[in-house]
Amino acid sequence: MAVSGFEGFEKRLELHFSGNDPLGLRRLRCDALAQVLDAVQCTVVSAVGNRYFDAYILSESSLFVYPQKMVLKTCGTTQLLRSVPCLLRHTADLGLRLRACRFSRGSFIFPRAQPFPHTSFAEEALYLEERLPPSLCFRRGCVLPSASSHSWHVYAAADDDEYVAAASPSTFTVEVCMTELDRSLARGFFRRKGDERSGDAAGVDMTDLTGIGGISPRALLCGFAFDPCGYSMNGLDRDRYSTIHVTPEDGHSYASFECTGGGEVIEWLRRAIGVFRPGEVSVSFCMAEGGDEKQVWSATSAALEPLGLSCRSQAAEGLPGAGIVTYQTFTARGK
């Protein structure tokens, strides 16, 4: 718990591996995953899977495990990067080799509450520099600036300067951070007093009543409602995932939306932001080399302007193993 409130902004780690076993990372034992999460200081509260990947809702955000890819996203004062040494030991036992790593986060609401190694982006980058295997020799960290106090911090590494983890120029990973949520809508993420249902059961109602169920209608959604407030959702749509996390308290309200997909992600993005009507939004796309950042910027702005949001800044960088990372910030008109 942060000094002034709960830190909603997540830290995100994406790792890509190669190996001969078709199940790969999905062979990680439950006790091995528990050790990794214990290093981060979080636990699994709900889990589901399909033929493509496993999705876990955590006490502090989410974990997605594919045969050759893992995405770990945690909020609060968790120590996300401490998962790396433990995870690399377990994956080595499975005969898996790390090919690429990408760490990303926004600007913390309560930066002074963060423990090592998350006290600064410089510390985070140094921590990864010292713990990633030497085979990941192409490395770069950068801070994508904005017109507001929010910046996008990204560190990426890969074992080949031509290796890009994204599948194709038409496949995206989208990370959205929203603050200053509409107060009336944020109240939908508080549980009623005396509600003794499980987090899963209460999460089903929260998913339906807040409109989250309409963002990606084809996906299998697993929502979890925390007590007394807060919400997490993982969505599974064949080999694509989506996730939402909400910290609804006044004064430091926050919601995130993340998904993978093709051109349809712009519509999902528009619907997700419509659920929360935030005062400020940042949107980051990650896509393979060959993607058109200007086209992404234009499509994102066109989707958000009808929601009363104006683009304030945009930036893009090429990173090893990640391809192109774009960053845009928006604020509600009249602010």
UniProtKB/TrEMBL annotation:
User: Origin organism of this chain?
Assistant: Musa acuminata subsp. malaccensis (Wild banana)
Q: Has UniProt tagged this entry with the keyword Lyase? A: yes
Catalyzes what? S-adenosyl-L-methionine + H(+) = S-adenosyl 3-(methylsulfanyl)propylamine + CO2
Cite the Pfam families for this sequence: SAM_decarbox
Q: What broad taxonomic lineage does this protein's source fall under?
A: Eukaryota, Viridiplantae, Streptophyta, Embryophyta, Tracheophyta
Give the binding site residues for substrate.
6, 60, 226, 249
Bound cofactor: record note: Binds 1 pyruvoyl group covalently per subunit.
As one GO molecular function, the record gives: adenosylmethionine decarboxylase activity
Q: What is this protein called?
A: S-adenosylmethionine decarboxylase proenzyme
Would you identify the family this protein belongs to, as annotated? Belongs to the eukaryotic AdoMetDC family.
Recorded hits in InterPro entries, A to Z, give: AdoMetDC-like, S-AdoMet_decarboxylase_euk, S-AdoMet_deCO2ase_core, S-AdoMet_deCO2ase_CS
Where are the annotated coiled coils located? Answer: none
EC no.? Answer: 4.1.1.50
| Modified positions (Pyruvic acid (Ser)) in chain numbering | 61
Pathways involved: Amine and polyamine biosynthesis; S-adenosylmethioninamine biosynthesis; S-adenosylmethioninamine from S-adenosyl-L-methionine: step 1/1
Name the UniProt key words of this record, in alphabetical order: Autocatalytic cleavage, Decarboxylase, Lyase, Polyamine biosynthesis, Pyruvate, S-adenosyl-L-methionine, Schiff base, Spermidine biosynthesis, Zymogen
